[in-house]
Records
---
Amino acid sequence: MVKKKSSHHDVVVFGIGGTARPSIEVGRKGIIQDLKSRNNLNGTICIVKEKLKNGRIAIEVSNNSLEGTEYEDKEIIAVLPTKLDMIWEIPNRQDANDHEIEELCPICIDTSMITNESSSRFSCCGGQICNKCFIAINLRSNNPNRCPLCRADTTDCSNEAEIAKIRERANRGTDANAMYNLGGYYDYGQYGVVQDQKVARYWYKKAALIGEVRAAQNLGCSFRDGDGGSIDLVEAAKYFKLAADGGHIQGITNLGLCYMMGHGVPVNLNKAEQLLKQSSNRGDQLAVQLLQILEFMKCIPENNPNVTTSFM
């Protein structure tokens, strides 16, 4: 069975009026700026490791030319807080374990399943059973190479065979999970599928239009970032709304950000606040951070007609 891997988050600098920045916290990312003696590090992304007693910040920096390899050279240096420009992380693609719906295992009718956590999904029919039953069937069955749900032959577990099964289900036009996963494989070039983000858009859209909110979230990101085609903020907001209407946490946050910044929709800070409170109440930390920025924005007269400026 094929399971979609977790995807990445895009890191972007996000500031309002040059002053609204996230606070300096351990583990958060920032950009080094205005160093004199180590000016070669200016513009480098770093990670905050510790707040020192002398008021400086210990940060970890990498040799960018070797980053991500076994030869990556990391260094800890101490800088003044003013030398760090902290950055937000904006939700990008759907993570594998987000917005999974709990179901009862059809075999034991006893165990609640959450895909990728407590169940196994079969690529032949798209059905899933709990891991307890999956292990029991493989240990006790005289023929463990058959799907316990549709009885299809599962002997060939190669990437090619698994993708072919998922593609067959997707081509039927009614299996949103298969469409979503196939879109993900094209999006990231996984399991032997050649990366083609234009095709990923096609499958995300087909899945989104029949109710797959994870696909709607990914499609919104695709239109927002220009992956697989032109940037279209109106379409991005449209699909973020589709995801948000389905209760998708990242979709709610992204739609709130659209209303906050006027991306594809008119600026509406009240609507943005309403949406961000929804996702923050469900544990989305970026929404919490964006609400702090929103409070700052609402204090600016041009953004809030209820705020007046007087001069003495």
---
Amino acid sequence: MHDHAECLAHALSERPHCADLHSHPGGGISRRRLLTGAGAAGAGALVTAALPVPAAHAEDAGVWRPDPADLRFTLVVMPDTQYLFDDDRVHPAPLDASLRWVLAHAREENIVFLAHLGDLTQNNGVPAEFAQISRSFEALDRRRFPYSVLAGNHDVDPGTDDQRGDTPYLRAFGPARFAHSATFGGASPDGYNSYHVFRAAGRRWLLLALDWRPSTAGLAWAQSVLDAHPRLPVILTTHEIAFADDAGEAHLSEFGRHLWDQLIARNDQVFLTWAGTSGRPDAPSWPTPRAMTSTCTSRTTRTVTTAVRR
């Protein structure tokens, strides 16, 4: 049994090879070996935070046709959009402009996927707020552009886990919405956790989108997905993993440490994590998130946790 705390410190250090410290149960593939063999070495997966841009005309967007063989590809990461969908203060224009930009530049930037990190809306499940943001994401649905979403603490009752049952979030962004998505692999029985498999750099990649608070059953489902895809590099997304203190230093939250101990540290497939919700108190409001760029190389691969504004 290896020391997960030591593994975590190592993963966040400048010597980030978890597999150098110990062997994982079952002889699982290490993060370093997995990324080296993936063909991502030297390719540098370009990670772009979605920002407001001048609106592109819908007719300029074109059809989404990425190049799955190109070693250069782009993943778009979108953090908390909650203040754009806040009761009677609904301002979808910045989100709409961002999504139009993604569609308009999908071919030029070889954009293969978009991941939303939760807190789509502000007030814990107001149907009208979800109706508005659902309409915005229809721009991606119409072009079958692949994306994932997950519930944040402002989308659902924050005192519940993924066994909470039906909610406006689930009705708007549950598994039924992704039935025609080419990348959608499935969802947990409760509908709040999902996974996608997309192609880039000549191979397949798996993205997990986990609920604000996955239950024991939710984490068991996530592990079953990893077990069923043992050789795919995995990006794990959820709403909360880390927070930034006043000095800008990142620390795992209580839930982040739980997620590390129960899932991430046990699976070297998970080479990258993205989360929203937390940032420095003086961080600018959405849609100007903190930097979210990561490059994978053959000699240095590690789990990266990105903290974004509150």
---
Amino acid sequence: MNKHLVFVYGTLRRGSARAMSVRFPGSKFIAEAKVSGGLYDLGAYPGLLLDESNLLVIGEKQLIEEVKTNVPDAGQTISYDEATAHVYGNAAVVNYILIVKGRDREGKDYANRYRITVVWVKQQGHWRMAAIRVSRIRP
């Protein structure tokens, strides 16, 4: 099975009910870690955006043996709405609304909406993400 070194922060750190060791029983703590970036309110959990600021996010390096992608938390659904894409030569702008529905730890249903804007740049024949902006849409 493949192993992956990941950076975890917040409730995924050791000692939390949502710790990596609970979600991935085969995970292994490697070391305390810091990354340059900021945390953003995504509703039920914070989102990390890496940048070159002097702000540090404290977390941990964890080694995990299995990664499931595009699998929401149990009972959580993810959908998209109002997707648009515009290409301008070697640049593209993609806008969409991300909708996350589920139930929090207290059993209360939630439905969070986020406006996502992604800027792509074509370099050496490959599209690469240049920037992403996530803004929570308040009810």
---
Amino acid sequence: MGDLAKRTLDNDTHAFDDRLVEFKKSVNNKEIDLELVILTLGQLGLPEGGNLEQIRERALKLGLEFCPAPTGHELRRQFDEQREGDWFYIAMDTIPASEGDPRVFCAARLIDGHWLITDWYNPGSPWHVDSRFVFLRRK
């Protein structure tokens, strides 16, 4: 995990498509179960892709929410079924890189292992319709 990911997590109190991924998250020393769903933007109902504002709006209409930033770390730590070459974004509010650029987490399984990386978010450039995001399902 990179420095930015570590700092963010320290400071915050496959094709799977619509398959649920469940894992436990520790909050105030208590484990809670979270249900996550992985969707392409097309499956989310954004046939032209979209920016974070459009993604959030559509997700809320479908009963989904953005994930807290630590979700990326927990997902990376607990989810070992991800196939090599597979990657997806964590639907989340952006976090600032050291130079101030907005970033989101991306969980990837590359030839050299599992990674949690940050990816630059350009507000003027929407994500592609096939981009996959992890959302929190409301209970």
